[in-house]
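Journal club side-thread
Mid-discussion, someone asked how the predicted structure for our own chain would compare to the paper's figures. Pasting it here so we can look after the session.
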Amino acid sequence: MNFNELEKKWQKYWDEHESFKAIDGSSKEPYYILVEFPYPSGSGLHVGHVRSYTAQDAIARLKRMQGYNVLFPMGWDAFGAPAEQYAIKNHIHPKEAVKENIKNFKRQMQTLGFSFDWDREFSTTDPEYYKWTQWQFLEFYKHNMAYKATVPVNWCPNCKTVLSNEDAAGGVCERCGAQVIQKNKSQWMLRMSDYAEDLLNGLDDTHFAPKVKLGQINWIGKSIGAEVDFKVDGTDKTFTVFTTRCDTLFGATYCVLAPEHELVDMITTDEQKVEVKKYKEACLLKNEMERTELNKEKTGVFTGAYAINPVNNKRIPIYISDYVLSSYGTGAIMAVPAHDSRDYEFARKFNLEIIPVLEGGDVSKEAYEGDGIHINSDFLNGLDKETAINKMLEYLEKSNCGKKKVNYKMRDWIFSRQRFWGEPIPMIYCESCGWVPMNESELPLLLPDVAEYEPTDNGESPLAKITDWVNTTCPKCGAKAKRETDTMPNWAGSSWYFLRFMDPHNDHEFASMQNLKYWNKVNWYNGGMEHTARHLLYARFWVQFLYNIGLVPNKEMIDTRVSHGMVLGSDNQKMSKSKGDFLTVSLLQEKGYDPIVYRMFCLQSHYRKPLEFSYEIMDNTKAAYNKLVKRVAGLKKEGEVDQNVFAEYKAKFVDAISNDLNTSMAITVLYDLLKADTNDITKYELIKDFDKVLSLNLENAKSTETTEGVDAELESFVLAKIEERKEAKKAKDFAKADAIRDELLAKGIVIKDTREGVVWHKAE
């Protein structure tokens, strides 16, 4: 059977009959289902995409069956470094590369039977779309939420662009492997930190999965403590530290500044200048993750200067160390080595004093990080933690050397990128007027159509050398001026795309309030767990800002956010390009696996669980699919449908899908139906109904191969037992796992554990 031809037939039918078209303002109850729209890479659709889309497609089909007006759109997140690097490597303009990649992605999606509403399709690279991204940036600027600042960034000297911390893990560029350096650059910033508390509180108005909420909470990183001022001995300089345990101040025996701290060069003694300079230069080669890694060896250099502990007037040495960041907190810490393991290691290495100020533990062996009654703490002696903190806060405020402070780990959003392929930032610099926003009537500000778009060696955007584009006039005074040459991050377009899907053809505003109110929220949003911090946080921040200026109806426009399990390779680790096991739909087709078989492979596992991939498992799935198709084809089509049985099994099927998209249980219901004591026509009509959700072409497909000796019922039983055994092994119930193996063997089934997963066959 030619799956491609069959799929083309149904895609044509669905298009002609607008089977999946969402109707704005329909009297039907709306239901909005969303998958993270993909970056259309040159390698094509990968299996992780399919995993996510298959689960969401099932719930979209079910909701349509239940009478909802379903919005299930698809588009393309096509700006950013990956597209640019692909274009440079293949000597093709990014605009053309994106067009071809989108065409390929869409074709592959259609081979998998996804029920997307293609009438709402757009790309972030469409001028009609990024016009509104630029317009919204101007709103940020008008409301004092966008500003310019010089900040330390991760810089890849090979890709010649700013990298996020995640893209610079291990101190190397994820894309090219070059050593990343720290660099101070002037960047556009969004005041995301102003929304920290709102973003925390807003989680109460969502139904995000618990681990997604936790990811958000950890990323925001709220902590309540105190800011304490330390004087630098013998100078008029002071610095401030943030601490959540001001009650332990009597145990502070040294301070540490970030190497980039503004005071470092001012207070470093002549004797220490060479060492300090050398250490600072070494820090430039490390990214933030490397610097803050808990298990790494602690390093640092003494500045030669001393601070005065404000509670006991003791002189304590000031060090610099890479584990303190200038961009977090105040860029300075007080160290209490008796009660912090990191400080303890540092103190041991540099032979610094360790003073316990809490009862418990043995600080001669290790830091004591528990709570206890205060000791060696003057007016705090004998007090518990809470009482001691409150009393110390009183002392600090009365002595004018500190105050209560709420701090957040989340920082302002670095919004600039020094590359060509991104949304131009619609700002103009005038020597007289400073930064001036473009006139809204002139949007979109288009990327110039140029042949050269490679990154520059001097850290400037490639746009900087296109003088006829850069040179303009000031919108405010009419004098000669220059356009901003940095572009937006790819996160810009993906921070609000779900709003545009609600009204994608609107050329008067980014989305009408009427449509936004009708669709109301994204009911169900699925994507990778790796995006539940950055991307989701950016999107929530963007929406909350739009809400505060009256442009969207809800402070939270995403109701439920879930994440799908990873696709694991033969080493039980996530598949990735860097490991050489990046798996695409194209590769599966080349190896003889029709996309519909991979769809079934995905449906047989709950979407939240990791999905173990191997070609042996795919072979088993292919065989199971062929047997299922063969069994369905053999059902007799005459007689009367048993309505009671029909209602019973349909209810079981719907319950399974409705239970957190439990497609694996839904497949089990289908196999149970085939074994049920009822007539063939009832089975056939139910399977047709089930397949409106599963979209496995069970009614029309024909088996491509004949496998003797194993029927569909046995296939279902074996696969269920293998899954049960896997769960038993995870729970370390090895007796149960062995019992399942013996049970299968008694039925003539031999199973074998391989690196790629469990394979099985009938005994000889």
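Post-session note: The chain has three domains: 3-133+494-568, 222-408, 585-762.
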